[in-house]
């Protein structure tokens, strides 16, 4: 999907304290280019903060380095971001929210509009194209925010619990859509759902402890999106849950 090569992300000895308490201490991690990495870990362990640092947040007092390899060409920002809050612009209809990036860059075109309408349809939101965010449910707004991120077609996508507000079936449908549209991009996806990580991750990074460390890196077999009734998934689901429980106690 991406017009530029999807870089690997290297987290190199990153440290960060909040109020004198270390959240990260020399945290190092390599996330492969063109693949999806899912990040799991207990609430508050630093997943969202890590994502913000990868997105280039300079507002956080971190040391160490996070870099893309190969380095992107200077005039392109390679990252698309979807945070935990949907942040749809309240005065724009859904379709225009989905097209927000193109709109801000003055790149709107009929073909992009058609793409947006097609995505809205595939996300089960047909009929709501002109709806304002306030008239949509939380899950519908989250789908809108996800589509807006996917429309960007960036080589790097950072997503913080993008499916959390969705019912099980919509979640599966949107996971499939996201996997299709992000094939070839470098995706970092924070989730609390081990099954989601097993369906979507080429790599699953489990974080634990304080300061947080990489407790485990899993590479499930096969390519995402994996079928939810794959027996191997059920087995790994149990193992992953056990790991996460150990992480809570760490
Ligand atoms: N800007 C900030 N200033 C001070 N403390 C912060 C800041 N941002 C995050 N924290 C703290 O850092 C820790 C990690 O927060 P973060 O949101 O990264 O965790 P998380 O693993 O994503 O949690 P969750 O799974 O609940 O979303 C928390 O204790 C949080 O209170």
From TrEMBL:
Gene3D superfamilies documented for this protein: P-loop containing nucleotide triphosphate hydrolases
Source domain of life: Bacteria
Ranges for domain ABC transporter: 9-234
InterPro entries per UniProt: AAA+_ATPase, ABC_transporter-like_ATP-bd, ABC_transporter_ATP-bind, P-loop_NTPase
MF GO annotations: ATP binding; ATP hydrolysis activity
SMART domains: AAA
Keyword Transport in record: yes
Keyword list, A-Z: ATP-binding, Nucleotide-binding, Transport
Pfam hit, one: ABC_tran
Entry keyword annotation includes ATP-binding: yes
PROSITE patterns to which the protein is assigned, alphabetical: ABC_TRANSPORTER_2
The protein, known as: ABC transporter related protein
